[in-house]
Amino acid sequence: ESGTSIKVDTSFPIDITVSDAIAGLKADYVLKVGKILEYVLTKLGSYTEGTIGDFSMTLNPTDNLPYFAYTRKVGSESNNNISVAKWTGSAFALVGPTGAANASARAASRPQVAFAKDGTLYVKYLGGDVASRPTVKKLDSDWVLLGSAGFTAQNVNTSYAFPFYVHPANGKPSLFWNGNTRNTASYRTMNLSVWDSESWSSNTISGV
């Protein structure tokens, strides 16, 4: 409009002054633009164990190196099993014994890894042998089962990778899950299961 002027100071931070000489009004604005950093993706290396399917990755808090869990089918195996590997800083390497799941009859899926603050490693997966219910194991030279395989009362929704973590305050492995069995309290509601050193406790989260 007539009488309106805009003055821009392009030095950082950018100042914009809008003035209306007729109305005798002026407004000042400051535009702060963050610096966009350049990202370069560099291939670390290659890793395979048979045919690899589902995959998830997280960082070990003790050394910030990436660990990943994956489904794999090796040789004449009929069903996907679960393994974990890591980046050592110079190469990829298998972590723990290969084949953490019982996949002799049905395939395992949706593997995830989680760490305690001291670097203790846990793996979670949905076991086909227990109707796609979750199983959690701890790495202690071998994969040690926490509680029982498929510890939830119902099978879970396999469409999403729900959070699996170790609580930083109490060190308890915990996981969220969404029930997939009709006519049950957990069906299509959010549930939380927590390992208390001896057994799993599961509760529906109200209002979710």
Protein model, in words:
This protein is about 0% helix and about 45% strand. With about 210 residues, the protein is mostly beta strands. The protein is elongated.
List the defining traits of the structure above.
208 residues; mainly beta; four-stranded antiparallel sheet; elongated
Task: Describe this structure in a few short sentences.
With 208 residues, the protein is mainly β.
Instruction: Compute the number of helices.
Output: 0
Shape: elongated
Strand content: over 45%
Main beta sheet: 4 strands, antiparallel
Topology (SSEs and partners):
Layout: E1 4-9, E2 14-20, E3 25-31, E4 51-59, E5 66-73, E6 81-87, E7 92-95, E8 108-115, E9 121-127, E10 133-140, E11 142-145, E12 164-166, E13 173-178, E14 190-195, E15 200-204
Antiparallel strand pairs: 1-2, 2-3, 4-5, 5-6, 6-7, 8-9, 9-10, 10-11, 12-13, 13-14, 14-15
